[in-house]
Design a protein that fits this description.
This protein is an all-beta fold and 127 residues long. It contains no helices and 11 strands. The strands form 2 sheets. Strands 2, 4, 5, 6, 9, 10 and 11 form a 7-stranded mixed β-sheet that branches. It is globular and about 40 Å long. The model has no long low-confidence stretch (mean pLDDT 96).
Length: 127
């Protein structure tokens, strides 16, 4: 069994920063990519950022480009999301996800590219 655990969420004011972490545990598995998604109340889960594990290339949603940075620690099997200049519209539950293999028809910006998901961590930004 593979477990992903997010941490680092909380309540901040607009303009402040947070750093989310996602640690993996359980049986070992190959990682093609890891990503962050978010879901606000009444909305669908949406892509935030992703990183290809082996080569480190990244993808970002337009709404977070220039403000959020995804990074990884290969040795600790951990992925991070540094969130700066937070806005009220960033308020959501943030989920970490892991893709074990590349799927040509499923880009890593889509939820169906991922095999494993964490339980989520709440990020609330007050204006």
């Amino acid at each position: 069994q593979v477990t992903l655990v997010e941490s680092g969420g909380g309540l901040v004011q607009a303009g402040e920063s947070l750093r989310l972490s996602c640690a993996t545990s359980g049986r070992s598995f190959s990682r093609y990519a890891m990503g962050w998604f978010r879901q606000a109340p009444g909305k669908e889960r949406e892509f935030v950022a992703a990183i290809r594990w082996a080569i480190g290339t990244v993808e970002y949603a337009d709404s977070v480009k220039g403000r959020f940075t995804i990074s990884r620690n290969n040795a600790q099997n951990t992925v991070y999301l540094q969130m700066n200049s937070l806005k009220s519209e960033d308020t959501a539950v943030y989920y970490c996800a892991a893709a074990s293999t590349v799927r040509p028809a499923r880009p890593i910006t889509r939820t169906n590219a991922y095999d494993y998901w964490g339980q989520g961590t709440q990020v609330t930004v007050s204006s």
